[in-house]
## 1
Amino acid sequence: MSAVSFIDFRTPASGFEQPIEIWQATHTRIARMNNMLQRLADFLKKNPVDTNAGVTAASLRRYFDEAARRHHEDEELDLFPRLLSRLNQQSSGPAAEHVGATIHALLADHEEMHDLWATLRAQLLLIEAGKDPGFDDAQVMLFVTRYRAHMEIEDNEIAPALKRMLDARDLQEIGRAMAARRGVEWEELAAARP
Ligand SMILES: [Fe+2]
Ligand SMILES: [Fe+2]
């Protein structure tokens, strides 16, 4: 396994004033981690588990356990409910109904992705312990393709709706909640600003 360089899990010290941008940037990171997962599965098809494979497995496990979980919470607890509430208040008709139905489908996806992750996680733990996980390629492919399709819908359909429907106060409240979820104090951010 080619050496996996240090992976930065730190939360950026600022940016929560623009929570939608932070949220979408996480999609780019998740896509990168999915590529890494696929590379690991490809490597283990032809090679035994080695130290670098173990390090990669640990990085992937930590990322999906911590950062991806918080990302889903941002959506489930803050972004999606706020968007649904604004849609209910401000508009009706097919467009609003479509976004509402899309959000419900995305939430159902989260459940399914969570189950897929539980299986992969157990396999990554084996790799971390230096054991052959017997990686199920179909399972890896399913996880990666589900995630990709899911994030495309969020970027193409939900992001424009969020930008259209949420006002400055919504964004501030969501940014605060996202910062708190990562242990970042909003006041610290305010104080750090020039
Ligand atoms: Fe999602
Ligand atoms: Fe997402």
## 2
Amino acid sequence: MIQQIAFVLTLAAAVFIIARRVGTIRKNIRLGRKPLADDRPQERLKNMTLVAFGQKKMFKRFIPAILHLFIYVGFLVINLEVLEFVIDGLAGTHRIFAPYLGSFYTVLMNIFEFLAVAVLLSCVIFLIRRNVIKVKRFWNYEMTKWPRLDANIILFTEVILMLAILTMNATDQLLQQTNGHYTQTGSLFFSSMLMPLFNGLPENTLIFIERFAWWFHIIGILAFSIYITYSKHLHIFIAFPNTYYAKLEPKGHMNNMPVVTNEVKLMLNLPDANPNPAEAGRFGAKDINDLSQLNLLNAYACTECGRCTSECPASITGKKLSPRKIMMDTRDRMEDVRKRIDKGEEAFADGKTLLNDYITKEEINACTSCNACVEACPVMINPLEIILELRRYVAMEESGAPASWNGMFQNIETSFAPWKFSPADRFNWAQENK
Ligand code: SF4
Ligand code: SF4
């Protein structure tokens, strides 16, 4: 009974903390101005199924994709076992499904154990890649102490959790041999390899280790579930809405500014121009509340994998730009603004803005708008859209574009092209090459 009460209290506390944090993340995303688009639901569902559920874009790099797939499938399937943990915890039972499922239970447990071992090995290989081989994209300048530690905590925790499952099953099998009260699970291949480690221990010690591993695993999973809502690992959930709400237009499409479009239409006397347009508001984005809700959702979905940065021509050629950092900075700014709101302070009155205090002009000006980062991202994040919005603000609100660009702007305004030629001379080259 004491164990059941302890379990109910632990579960309730975890559910409460997670629900509160999810609420905070939703409120942060709603700080953005343009709401999430939900038109064309069939295309959106297809994207979500292929990219988030099917991991389609991960397979551009085969070996990490396979290892990631093990962790992902392991996460989904092993959580079915957690269902039994929760029911056992609430009802005070032990392996409640075993008598009902019979030999199918043995098959299921062996599948879970295979996945647990696959997750464990994949995590160890990922830890080696990050910390021993030091794959370059995990050591970029924006991967400071915390992001690197965060990734290691996640991988290390998963290793420990998988070891706890195998330890629990190994000691449970030994107890099944000596104590008639223990439900028979049948032979479990991987955990039985650990049985020699515990052979010969007194029954009380075995019971203690089995119970300790059970509690460790379930508390570990609940603590991990809370932790990931503060970590880059949140992508395991946010990748789903992120791919659903992702932009459906072709990658090269840039969002027009309706006010500017209307002004051009008025200049050209087009019939669908609105002669009384609404107040223009701010052009581009200076802070997170100028960005769209999709931009902010993107920031929470970022896995910090660095695939975007490793493909970015500006980054490769040594410019001070990392699309991954753009997403990390956007998320950091949201969290900083939320801390002020939670303290009852004016949200944006800290004298800081996303532009300048988190992302510099040097960074946004280095972008070639090539879309390589968008193409590379495994969860359909678009760092370029944030860069373009910040650049729009600098160019249109501050007239602060680099001096070398101003000639180009003037040419576009007067000659409708970046070059200083009259539109009437545009086809001269064809005459010259006749
Ligand atoms: S669009 Fe900009 S940030 Fe993205 S890869 Fe190209 S240069 Fe880098
Ligand atoms: S934006 Fe995408 S590719 Fe870049 S680090 Fe985040 S998840 Fe990875």
